[in-house]
Amino acid sequence: MKAITVGLIPSPDMPNKLIDKVINQLEETFKSNIDSNVDWHFEQEVAPMIGTSEHMDETLDLIKDKKNQNNWDYVICVTDLPSISGKKAVVCDINTDTHSAFLSLPALGVINLKKKLKSFLAFVLNYMYRKEDDVDLLKNKGFKFAKISKVTPNEDNSTQTVRIIIESAAIGWIHIIAGMTYANEPWSAIGDFKKIISVSFATGTYVSIFSTPWDLSISYDYWRFILLTLLSLIGMTAWLIYSYKLWEHPSTKTQRIYRNAYNLTTFMTVGSITIFHYLLLFVLLGISALLFVPPELFTSWTSLNSIHPTFIDYVNLIWFITSLGFLAGALGSTVENAEKIRRVTYSYRQYYRYEYISQSQIEDDKENEEQYEGEKQSHRKEEK
């Protein structure tokens, strides 16, 4: 039986975690979908890929070098780098000559991600092994809405390189932003915003001892509650991004399309963290209000008069003081340090990008020279 060794090179963090989950299942998947007469072996090597999205060629060269160093038959790199070609999301680049492929994890989205990754690894290997694509490998594997197609990169002179893209630009961008946000693992930031929660809780508790917020919570229409909530959430998100300089500004070494992708991902990541902490504050202030705001006092201090307060009245009060406390806590509040907030809100790739751009700007100040922002990716339809 012929033996084939496949090298898998995931980037640190999310790509590596997903490869860890599927690597033991790949042999069975490859035997059933590609060739049952092959003894498939898999080797995994985590590598912090060099370069940024604008310089994919550097990463592709590293993949080839890794393959030669380890004597692998095939190599697939799985990274959290977004890849965009002609404003469309690139799922992967495949070179049948060098038996190497570059898979962009964000393009797979977040729904059924493990299943999609396993199916696409089989699809990519099948293409390199047989030099033909088998779309059946992707059917009913989470690719119902994202129609993919095969194109030829314009920037690559090799006739052996093909690019797999998502045909719908809108669906592709949704996948990229959702996938990059997921790769940032915002849920891991639960314990890193203690100061913000403390300030917001103290403010909300202080506000709740006065009768005016109680009365306003009874009088307000729901659209006002919603508006105040949105104002507090957006205010906190904007403050964190501004305060810790998380927004990527134009640079001579970056392309606008990738800046937009990273900035939108940053907003979504910080926004999701903010929403979680808003809900946490709601629970904390809810417990406080239910314990220390007796119904009799609620009635006598507000326009309820002799009417007994209902559960909805308490929910509205808690909602109101949560939004006020969160909004007040947003302005001027801080977390432990700027380095930590970037580690929390950026994936490994995005953090590397931040450091790369920062260093580039320092070099630009020292040397006034023309910079190269990388070659934009584009493609053309394959001739039938």
Automatic annotation (TrEMBL):
The keyword Membrane applies. Residues 362-372 have a biased composition (Acidic residues). Keywords: Membrane, Transmembrane, Transmembrane helix. The chain crosses the membrane at residues 222-242, 262-294, 314-335. Residues 373-384 have a biased composition (Basic and acidic residues). Residues 362-384 are annotated as: Disordered. It comes from the Bacteria. The keyword S-adenosyl-L-methionine does not apply. This is 5,10-methylene-tetrahydrofolate dehydrogenase. It comes from Mammaliicoccus lentus.
